[in-house]
Amino acid sequence: MISKRAYCVYVAFGLLSFATSCKCQRSESQAKAYSAHKGPVIYASDKLELEDIRDFYKRVFGKDTYTVKWSEIEKFRVGSAIAERKPYMDSWYPERTGGTNVASALAKYDKAFHNGDNVAAKWEQENHNRLEPSWYGHCNGTSVASTRYQNPKVNVRRPAGCNPVGATCTEFTPQDIRAMLTEISMNTRAKFISGNRCRLTAAEVAQRPLLRSNPLQMDECDDVNPGSFHTGLVNFLGRQKQPIIFDERMNEEVWNYPIYRYSYTADGPLSEAQAVAATGLPIDSWVFNPQAKSWYRVNMTIEYRESRGDFTGAGSTADPFNTLTYDYLVELDGDGDVIGGEWLGASRTNHPDFIWMPFEPADPSGDQSRGNPGLSNSEVIKLWADANGFNAADPFRDKPKNNYDVRFFPPSDLSWGRVKGYYRLTLDGRSTGVAFLGKKTHLRIELEDALKNDASVEVQLNGQTLSLNPFADGKSDLLFDAQAGVNLLSFKWTSQKVDANELNWDFRFYAM
Fold it and tell me: Of 78, 89, 155, 406, whose CA is between 20 and 30 Å from 132?
């Protein structure tokens, strides 16, 4: 719940975008009472939220191209992931039918990796077994698995190369591997791009009044704001070709599906009177967001892969996909930036709950709502890699056999100068992001094994290229004069093994 009371204060959750900020629907009497309020009314600025999502986007893609500028957004009226990343069809593995232990997939895992002890299969039976509500299952895991992993192609044996008739040999089918990919993907690391989980029933959602009863309060069933939804699709899917996942229903049920493609048309710019008329509400002025100066009416169609309760077509990436169309207004400020929006017509009570981007699975916690702790992420991914002929030690970078552009969760902001797995920086021997003036600043770059004898780098300080010593034993040292205050170190890497977008990060440090 976002409570605005006398001030409109917006608190970000995950990557809830700026565009949900401070939007109230008011009747004429409420608007008059609100305008008579004598205290200061501070509308939530988009700056902090925008910087948050832009920073995350840059750390994921290595590019500072996230935009809310309508003139730039309009260049991406159609967007999709690459053809190779079409999500495959699969079940959502309902809990009421046994979860992911379909065809004894987890029992096979127990035979191969737990010496036959009933570990993974038992946990699934005891934890993912709820009969009610009937929609409990693994749809989020299926959505992640089908967008981050290619469909397994062939059977795989463990131990590798064993005789299939041997008592200790276990053979995993593509269906087994898909089930386990779904299970470990229940632990996926993820970032919410926008939205909230609404827990009202469908009947309660239908009874919601068009006008919010309290002009100073929004609740979680206002869901993803259309402006956030629109800019999220354009930036993550349109610009970067990354499938994103949405909760298709705005009520208590959660149905996560991957969005693969979108297209939209837009009518505008509209005047205030035209925007008001489009809402069909009994208001005579735009009372939702006083910073809005122009509006566009958008008709958005998304294509997504809906998972099934059975296994018909499992593994297929063929069309057709499911489609949904949404009708909404986006609000622009005086600079032509998207700052919010309003759902229109049927989309007012039929729009996504939230949208999010998945990354690699974290270690299982044993929580009932997460993945099975009896499975090893690394062992399941090796099974998948072998089923597709990829290098099991590093399948996502096995180019050109694996041409998926799969992103990993970016390094933590708390670990200054560390790009895990690749390199680390120290300033004057410390990783604090602070340097002291009165002497030259000492920057050390230390390569990890993945980049040793492979990579070269250009380093810039505040836009000026620094002279870099050759790497010796994976280390290189630079001395330079920092300016007082905030400094920016930028890195442009060249590597035969690793995509530069995983390496090219900026690091700010403070010199005092």
Answer: 89
Structure tokens at 438: 């009165």
Task: Give me the amino acid identity at 1.
Answer: M
Contact 420, 411 (CB under 8 A): yes
- Residue count of the chain: 512
* Cα distances (Å, whole numbers) of residue 170 to 121, 383, 389: 15, 12, 18
Angstrom distances, CA of residue 106 to CA of 37, 93, 184, 435: 62, 13, 12, 53
10-residue block means of pLDDT along the chain (512 residues)? 20 28 29 31 36 77 89 97 93 93 96 96 93 88 96 96 89 97 94 68 59 46 78 95 89 86 97 94 84 96 94 92 96 91 88 90 87 96 98 91 90 71 88 81 91 89 89 90 86 87 84 76
CB count in 10 Å sphere of residue 477: 14
How far apart, in whole angstroms, are the C-alpha atoms of residue 181 and residue 167? 25
Q: Residues 88, 304, 54, CA angle at the centre, nearest 5°? A: 105
Taking alpha carbons only, the member of 129, 109, 330, 103 closest to residue 234 is: 330
CA dihedral sign of residues 310, 312, 318, 322? negative
Task: Find, among 220, 489, 447, 486, the residue nearest to 354 by Cα.
Answer: 220
Per-residue buried b or exposed e for 392-402, using 16+ beta carbons within 10 Å of the residue's own CB:
beebbebeeeb
Helix (H, G, I), strand (E, B) or coil at 382: helix
* Residue 445 neighbours by CB distance under 10 Å: 21
pTM of the model: 0.74
CA distances from 114 to 87, 117, 121, 159, 376 (A): 31, 5, 11, 13, 11
Strand pairing of 354-361 and 170-172? unpaired
- Domains of the chain in start order, with CATH, are 95-186+367-397 (no CATH), 418-511 (2.60.40.10)
| Cβ-based burial of 195 (10 A; exposed 0-12, middle 13-18, buried ≥19) | buried
Please report which residue ranges of 62-196 form alpha helices under DSSP H: 70-73, 105-113, 120-127, 139-148, 174-184
